[in-house]
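Sample 1 of the test manifest.
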Amino acid sequence: MNAFTPTDRSKVKRLHERGRYDEATIFPILDAAFIAHVGYVIDGQPYVTPTAFWREGRVLYWHGSAASRMLRFQEAGVPACVTVTHLDGLVLARSGFHHSINYRSVMAFGTARLVADPAEEARQLDLFVDRLYPGRRGEIRGNEKQELKGTTVIMMEIEEASAKTRSGPPKDDDADYALGCWAGVIPLAQVVGEAQADPKLTPGIAFPSGLADYVPGARFDAVLTACAGKLG
Amino acid sequence: MNAFTPTDRSKVKRLHERGRYDEATIFPILDAAFIAHVGYVIDGQPYVTPTAFWREGRVLYWHGSAASRMLRFQEAGVPACVTVTHLDGLVLARSGFHHSINYRSVMAFGTARLVADPAEEARQLDLFVDRLYPGRRGEIRGNEKQELKGTTVIMMEIEEASAKTRSGPPKDDDADYALGCWAGVIPLAQVVGEAQADPKLTPGIAFPSGLADYVPGARFDAVLTACAGKLG
C-alpha cells in the first residue's frame, strides 16, 4: 500500500482513529473535489484562498491570474497547506455533546511552486479542462499565447497528507438512548442542477455529449470522480 | 451602510470589481454556511482546518476538543484567516481561458482567542445548536460539566473581511460567440437528503417539527439562512 509518512505536521491527533495516510484513501477524496482551500503565510499572516485544483500523481495544481497575490507570493516556493472537505451529513445525537458531522477531508502539506516551463504550464491547463469536461477541448477555442502568459500555474508536490473521515449514525452515551428525542443523520450532498444555456448561445447547439455525467440531480463528487477516471 | 475597512490584507486585488466589504454582503454569505476553513500558522507552517462555525454580530465562533492542536495553539490569541466558500456553478465558456466558476466567498481576518469564561462558553455552544437546529435543545440532554470542560470554544472578532462573488453566464471574447460549441452554466448546490433515523432509534419517534426546514431536496444554504433567522 502506498502511503504518506506522517510527521507531527500531518498526524491526526484529535480522534486519531479517524485518520488515514494511504493514497487509496486520500486520492479519491481529492479527485471527488473541485475546490480546495489553500493556506499560505505572508509576513506571519495566514491567508486561506479557495481555488479550483486538480491532481496528477502526488502533485496538486491550481491556477490563477499572474497578478494574484497568492500566486505572486508562491512563485518563490512557499510552505502551503491544501485542504479539501466534503460535507456528507449532519449527525443528530441525543445530547449536544455527541452531535457531529459526517465528512471526508484531506490536509496536504508541501511547498507551492510556480510551474515555470511554458509547455508544462500549457499541458497542465489542458489537463485541468480534460479532468472536468471530457471532450470539451476539441470543441472550444485553444489557448492563445497572451492568455497563457497572463495565467500562472502553481504546483505542490504532496510531502505529507492525512485524511480524516466520519460516517454513520450518532454514537450516544448508553443512558441517553432512552431519551425520547429523534436521532439520526441528515445527509448533505453537492448536486448538479439543470444546465442553463448562455442567453447568447446560438440556437440549436445541444449540451455536449462528452458532459453526459453532468445529469441534473447527480452528485458532483461522483461526476468529478467519473471524469477523472476518463483521463488517458 | 456598515462595512469593514479593507487594508492591503483584505483588499480584493484580482478582479477587484467582484470584491465587497459591507456587512450586508458578508453576513448573509457567512450565515448560509456551515463549514469554514480556518488558517493559522505554527512555526511558519500554515495549517487549514475545516470546522463548523457560527456567527454572533461581528464575531465568528468555532469549537472542538480541548485537546485539538488548532485550538491549543489558538488559545493564546493568534492571527487567523477564516474563509467560507459557496460553489454555485460551473461556467462553461467558448475558450478555456474564459471558463469560470460562480461562487460566493468571504475571507475574514482577525485574532483567534479562547472563550475563557465558562458561562459564555456554555452560551455560545447553546447558540451553535440553536442556530442549526431550532427547538432541539428542548429535546436533548443538556451539557454536563465535564463535557463543557472537554470542549474549547474559540472566537475571532472580524477585524477585516472581504466578499468575492461571481454569478451569471460566461463572458466570451466577441469573436468566439460565433463558435459552434455549447456555453452556459451548470448550477451546483448543496442539498439536503432524506433523513436517516438512527438504527437504535426507539420506534415511533418522529422527525422533529422544529427541523421542518430540513426538507429533502432543500438547499442547505437556504436552510441555514432560515434557521439563523429564527434566533431570538
